[in-house]
Predict the structure.
Amino acid sequence: MRLAETVTFGGAGLDRAAGLRGDPEAVAALLCAGETRILPVWRGKPLFAGAAAGWLTPGHAVLAEATEAPVLLGLAGGAARFAVDVSGWEPPVGEAPAEGVFFDPTEQRHPDLPGDHRFAELRGLMAALTAGDAELVATAKALLGWHRSHRYCSACGRPSAVIEAGWQRRCPDCGTRHFPRTDPVVIMLVTRGERTLLGRSPGWPEGMFSCLAGFMEPGETIEAAVRREVAEETGVRIGRVSYLASQPWPYPSSLMIGCLAEAESEAIMLDPVELEAAVWLSREEAARVLAGDHPTIRRPRRGAIAGFLLTHWVADRLD
Ligand SMILES: [Zn+2]
């Protein structure tokens, strides 16, 4: 797909400067350099300044809340970009985050920052970021999320330590090295002639439908995962599968692999645990959904690959 890398979080070409990661002196020098910028992330929420990423300069008071060493994201225009987890900070009374919800609309403001700076859910602002910042923020959120949930060695259970400027952890006890994980997910634009198949999971916001998707399993090809997921969720049989586009999806650490899946059957048999409803939509109906003009199905959230694939299918731009 020619436009594949125009998806949100895709294709900005960040220089990840992997050659610097094993050089602690160089990393320490970069951390103090005047042109360096550092993004704090609080309990999975990046800092925003208005609708832009909230980059801070080295030595800013908020960075003193760090719970572990900053991670080196890479170089942007030759200047280093780091991210740091400040989850130990306690927000002011009345700004507690919403727990266990699909989208947390609350925002948290640190007293040492200007009024337009706050920690907020990336889902709500991801489509407003520049391509360069989107890649940096997605990387920061995924990498720091991995550190938060992998503090102990999975081989022996002892606390592990950050090495390689945040791109590995190492167990000082047994020596095992641990690498940040990315979990592949297949997401399918299922088509049958001029129609496409959308589904909704239990608990989603009212009117929300999306392309079918599911985690890949060990030992599976992308094609096999596409056919299995569609069959499990809807009973629809898939023939040819082709790759369209991919999207890093840091909620918390997925890689969405967008595929075109050509259906060989139409009858829907729902798996009620996975899906609450599934519908075949014509191209005209899908266009109404995208325009926010459909009577029962809401427009997809901007930035997600499902809406991206659907938009390009409606416009006949999947080539
Ligand atoms: Zn160990």
Observations:
- The radius of gyration is 21 Å.
- Residues 131-149 form the longest helix (19 residues).
- The chain has a mean pLDDT of 96.
